[in-house]
Design a protein that fits this description.
2 domains, alpha+beta, six-stranded antiparallel sheet, elongated
Amino acid sequence: MRISEYISTIEFDTFKLYYREFKPFEAKLYDFVDYEQAEIRNDKVLNSIVDNDQNLNLTFTLIASSTSKDELLQCFPLSKNAVFPKRKNAIYNIAILFKNKGILSGGLNIDIRDRIASTINNKEVLLTNENSEKLIELFSKYSCQVSPFYLPPSIPVGEIWRNYEFPFEFFYNPAFETFEARINSGIMCLNFTTAKVEFEVVDNNISAEQIKRIHLIEGNKYKINETLSEYFWESYNQMRGDYGLPELTDIDQLKYFVRVYGFIVPIDEEGPIIISFRTWDEEHGQAVYYYNESRIEFE
């Protein structure tokens, strides 16, 4: 969900802007701990602007209070600008609280440095670079410089997917507009191996059918592995001489030369899931197009 979509669900007549200076030594922060716990752990501070009981986090300073909705909404235009990747262990340094007739109705925690945002209920919301720049301008209007050494951020997304476990959590890769995670796959291995699973995005979300298709592959791994092994066995023996490969005496030995790397799940339910393998051909590998158990095509 984008921040503009989240704000549209809230009734508010006032919003408040908060800021706290980033302190590198505050290395560990916890969402939704009570203040007694925070005081006991003197090297850790509450991360969210409010705790579970809606008590204000006193490490933040109130910068401004405004009733001008347009002033805030202009920071979150509907756009297709790149959304920066979610990282775990964000340290929030700005926050926005929404109030309706004096009662808290919602709020946002934002890590302006790493372009990460969540609601005060700990739900992830997507923050674009354009949103970040406009927020910096808004705080600057109230004489608060939230990013004194601003540089547009890079997108280091290469292996971040390894920190997210399918099907419980997913990493949004803004460079390719896909959701990614690691999966313990039983495809072409002796037991299980770690592979990458990528989902094409449907309205900024993954569909239940996309997740179901991966579960079906893993559930039918024995039958699928038979088909894959037969193909790779024939291919291996045809190319063995060209690549200087040893002679194999058992088809199960293929698993030392063929390893699943990843799955790409399309939006179209009828489209093939692309399964990529690392093989003896280190440059090209092998792509397999999986439609169903009865239809598996090899590139």
